[in-house]
Amino acid sequence: MAVSKTESFHDNDEIKHPKECADLRNKESESISSVLGQDTKATNRVLTQEEMDKLDGEVLVSDFKQIKLEKEAQKNWDLFYKRNSTNFFKDRHWTTREFEELKACREFASQQLVLLEAGCGVGNCIFPLLDDELNIFVYACDFSPRAVEFVKKNPLYSPERCCAFQCDLTKDDLRENVPEGSVDVITLIFVLSAVHPDKMKLVLQNISRVLKPGGIALFRDYGLHDHAMLRFKSGSKLGENFYVRQDGTRSYFFSKDFLAELFEEVGLQPVTNDYVLRETVNKKEGLCVPRVFLQSKFTKPSQSQTL
């Protein structure tokens, strides 16, 4: 295993929810939790027999509850932000390191980069970018009206550099707020996993309409067999690789093939699409947590490529 430099626990982007992830949060003490980062691999991690038996033995949540969860999806995320305010997620200062397109995709240095963050939460991704004084304009949308209000109240929010709005990406046309074909880069960071798999294609069709030909979509989310997937208790499974947390929010765990097929169905072509395997190690607490993320880039073909 290739070992990277020591990073903070939060650089692993675990979305930590109350109760279910409390034990992991408690282990993020002042004793340093180091991250041993593996190189990106083409294959996913191998499960133990015990882990395979656990996944095979899971029973699906009832249809009645699944329908209720879908109807209450926005309410559950709004309640999440009501409980946690802006304090739950760490700012994502790693985005320009992981996605060089945030700095390098412009044709010339003075060109303003137009970015859409689909599922912005309270702005943990966009505000570090704006604070870096990059020459960018950001469209930012979220399912939760409360999250959007937190974005607008941030001291770094400025209508001259940012436009935040509430949006259900599965049904609200982004073109009502974002000009068609105007966006250089779209970020989907721990967002698509919260959408029902049957509606993921609708999200990608929606974002594709505002992406420029030659523009790029940057994706990072939970990978298949991530530790968070294996920690769900009995009664949490909604479907294949799809689970509900105790607070009613949901999470899907992506395979490379499933993700590539989704994007290609809406005409977005893969640039990179790989698992990122990591271990979060806290020696003091004796904790070793295997993490799996999927990090990918997809591009919208230019007009010459489609001819």
UniProtKB/TrEMBL annotation:
Record EC number? 2.1.1.-
Q: Which reaction does it catalyse?
A: cytidine(32) in tRNA(Ser) + S-adenosyl-L-methionine = N(3)-methylcytidine(32) in tRNA(Ser) + S-adenosyl-L-homocysteine + H(+)
An example Gene Ontology molecular-function term? tRNA (cytidine-3-)-methyltransferase activity
Compositional bias segments (type: Basic and acidic residues): 7-30
Q: Which UniProt keywords are given for this protein, alphabetically ordered?
A: Cytoplasm, Methyltransferase, Nucleus, S-adenosyl-L-methionine, Transferase, tRNA processing
Q: Which Pfam families match?
A: Methyltransf_12
Gene Ontology cellular component annotations, sorted alphabetically:
cytoplasm; nucleus
Superkingdom: Eukaryota
- Gene3D superfamilies named among the record's database cross-references: Vaccinia Virus protein VP39
Residue span, Methyltransferase type domain: 116-216
Tell me which InterPro entries the record gives. Methyltransf_12, METTL2/6/8-like, SAM-dependent_MTases_sf
Q: Residues annotated as region Disordered?
A: 1-36
Where would you find this protein in the cell? Answer: Cytoplasm; Nucleus
The top EC class is: transferase
GO BP terms in the entry? tRNA methylation
Q: Subunit notes for this chain?
A: Monomer. Interacts with SARS1/SerRS; interaction is mediated via tRNA(Ser) and is required for N(3)-methylcytidine methylation.
Which function does this protein serve?
A: S-adenosyl-L-methionine-dependent methyltransferase that mediates N(3)-methylcytidine modification of residue 32 of the tRNA anticodon loop of tRNA(Ser), including tRNA(Ser)(UGA) and tRNA(Ser)(GCU). Interaction with SARS1/SerRS is required for N(3)-methylcytidine methylation.
Which family is annotated? Belongs to the methyltransferase superfamily. METL family.
The protein's name: tRNA N(3)-cytidine methyltransferase
Q: What is the lineage of its organism?
A: Eukaryota, Metazoa, Chordata, Craniata, Vertebrata
